Amino acid sequence: MDTIDAVIRTCHTHGRPDLAEQLTRRRGRLLHPELRVLVTGTAQQGRSRLVNALINAPVCGILPDGDAALPVVVRHAAAPAAHLIRRESPTVDWTVAVGMQARTPLAPERLGASLAEAAATLPAGAPVHVDVAVPRSLLAGGLVLIDGPALHSVAEARDLADRAGADLVLWTCEAGRQLSDAELGVVSALSQVFPGLLVVLTKADYTADWRHDLAESRQRLNRAGIAAAVTAVSSSLRVHAVRAGDEALNKESGFTDLIVYLRQMVEAKPDRLARAAAGALSRMALQELAVPLHAELANQDDDGSSETVAHLQATHRRLDELRKSTVRWQNRLSDEVTDLMSDIEHDLRDRVKALLAEADEFFTTADPAKSWDEFEPWLRQSLQDLARTSMSWLTERTEWMARRTADMFPEDAGDVLPPAAPTVGRDSLAGLSGLDAPPVAEFTPGQKLFIGLRGSYGGIVMFGLATTLAGMSLINPISIGGGALFGGKSVRDESKTLLKRRQAEARVAVRQYVDDIFTKLNKDARDSVRRVQRALRDHFTAVTEDLQEAAMESLRDAKAAADRDAAARELRGRNLRTELARLTELNTQALALSDRARA
Amino acid sequence: MTGGDLEQRAHALLSQAAHVYRGHPRAAGRLRHTLDRFAGPLRLAVVGEARTGRSTLVNALVGEEIAPVDPATFVTYRDGTQPRAWCHPEQGRPYEVPVTRGPGGLQLGADTAMSRAVVQWPSRVLRRTELIDTPPSVPPGQILPEADAVLLLTPRIGETDLRFLGAGRGLRGPSVHPVHAMVVLTKADTHGDGLPGGLLEARRAARRRRREPAIGALCQDVVAVSPMIGHAARTLRDDEYLVIARIAALPKAEADPFLLSTDRFTAAGSLTVVDQQARIALLRRLGLGGIRLALALTRTGSTTRAELADRLHEHSGLKELQASIGELFVARRAALKARSALIVLDQILRTELLPPSPQLLAELELLMAGAHDYAEMRLLSALRSGRVELPAETALEALRLLGGAGTSLGERLGLPTEATVDDIWAAAGSSAELWREEAALGSRTPAQRRAAAVVLRSCEAILADLTVTTP
Prior knowledge:
Shape of chain B: globular
Distance between the termini of chain B: 17 Å
Number of helices of chain B: 21
Number of strands of chain A: 9
Oligomer: heterodimer
Number of strands of chain B: 11
Radius of gyration of chain B: 24 Å
Structural class of chain A: alpha/beta
């Protein structure tokens, strides 16, 4: 009893109140002096006949339809009495006392008829059983026989045996038929909880080679590892024997052995049977308790990577990723900057070249001296436009570069773009000084006169000499005309030459000017690119540091969690093991109990 | 439409399908096999768990000791001019094996593991019906395609039996009519303590079961039989009769104590009028219940072997079973064979789709919708079991018209063979009139009206037949 108490306590601590309750019920019953014997089996195996033959009274299976017979509880009483008892619900124990309104008295002398009447008044499927009391010396010792309903499954059998409050189970099976595999399963399950289970082969009188069947059943049970005795009886022989008072026939029926067995069990109940039952029950309960523990332990052993460890690994991976991304974004940034610089330079050069071409074009026709005022603002405007477009393009490119670099960060790093794109130095040409007109060689009227005279001199001489031959003087109207012609041409040539020179000078001046501007712009652009690069580098470095810090932090957390978890698992495992050891110890006690019961 | 018509149309449909599927080896093979079988006798499988008396029942039905050949295989017994046997191995072609007759059935000279065996045995019983002895615990999926009809042997109808019966009943197509199964409650002799009244009790129980809708909906009949006593009755020998007669001659009070148990009956010093070996042999043949029954019958007036055998035959329930088989299976073998063949066809048409398949399927459905045989058979079963009750007079006529007493025109109309065509016309016309009224009677229950409608349709089928044959 101490063992079973300990087991009940263990059940409670393991959160199995159902098991504890079941054990408590059985424990209470084990202390009860009466021995309740449940006679059961599959349908039509002679259960009721067996009970009837045992007590020599037709009390069981008396309703006409054999399969639907009501369960009958047969007990001892000085005077015969019978009641139909209606239990509150199918799950209520049969042993629970019921009030008067749930008991329908039946006439013991005409049991069948009154039972049929009483049963007809009840709703179909109501949980009822018949309680019959008969004056029999066999029952006087506290033996209670229960003719249970037919059973087919293990769960059904366990439930019935538990509800009916059985201490001992007799499993009936007709001779001439093997125990089926399903039956063997039920018998095996029952024999674990009910020590002393007896398999009774009925109808032995009718079967030619029942001895062979008996031996075979014993073998089958042995092979299945079921600790159950087998005996063969013949109810009809017993009935004949009792009717005729034939002692030899009674012996032949096999009932004497069965009765001896039952009497032994009644005597053994407070001592050996109770001990064996307690042992068996405890073992069964402990096994049931141990199953989840073992499962958990096994789970722990083979499934090492718990959630925290997985998290830890994930954090590690993230950190690695971050480290790799640092190198990647740095490379990307420097690549982009190099690209950008060359692109910007090329772009600027392109635009400047176009501008220069335009200016050259302009000066092929225009006279710088006359149109400078017109040209100079245009040039300035164009240069400023050029600078602006190139700068805005640069800004776009830097933004794009920032994004490209940000792409190199791991996806889970979030938004790492700088809040505002790094500013590019704008209006770098704001203070652009105007281009002064190139010094123009003036072509004054004096010079013109001088050049004209110089040119006309040749003409006058050439024409004068020719006309002297014709007898004219050197200075004559013809020579003067020729001189004027030559003088005019000289002046025109001279002024053309001067224009060419001015244009060339203007071009050179513009080229120089634009070159200067280009150098300045280029430098500005390079500077701003570098500035941007620096700004981006600083920003991304900061971001990387932040991320790394966060990752390190979470890694530390994960590590700590994993450590804590491992410790907890270790503790749980230890607890489980000690608990299992405790269960094993209790099991040994239970085993010892059973062994003592057997001894 | 009568059985012959159904058979012809089913055969035509099968031939058509065989033509359509000639390019598909699997389907074509199955169809050819089905067509081959279509021409053969009815295949009746005897099914049951171990030790339910399958082989004994086969022997009892044949009336000779031939089963079991090999309890682990399907054994088909068919009629033939001389005893021969073929072994169908798991692989390879079947081959003939020598067959010898031993004390516990036939023995085949087969040395390899057989999947099935075919035994040819000259017997009148087997002429129109092949019997198939099956191994125990074979799933229904293996048995049902092999047989046209099934005898399910069980000591009492349990869950597994209902599952087996349920497996044979389909949801659509030709298998919706559970006309192929009959439940045989064996070990009828063990009822009521194995006293002679037990057999009667078993028969009453069978009648109760057959009336239950859950069981009646799945099989044609439930019959209680003691195969052991039935077999012994059909093969009762003179020496056995002598032993019985000698014991029966003893005063009842003197013999009875030795009949209480098998031990007492075979004990060395008991019933000294008969040799112990003879008693043991008799017990083996008849069982204790059989011996008690035989003694009771001998004491109450069976004075010859033939008389005793006949009464034992009747009491064992075998006669009733034979009548049931004859009436519900053998007489309807055309419909049953058509049913099993059409089940195969239905399955092939639904699983192996070819362009003409839907059309064939529609034709099959048309055929099934027009097949009145199955409705007749179900109603016959319902009337016999009492699931449907008609007034006594009309019930007899309904049974007759439905073909319960024979499926020929004359038998259905209850006319003698010399009746003229005019007589037949008159009888058929009046029957149709009567049942048309019956089907419309307001005082009948719906079930009765439905039954009357089925009978009316049978009458109309007879009239239609007459129109065809006598223009």
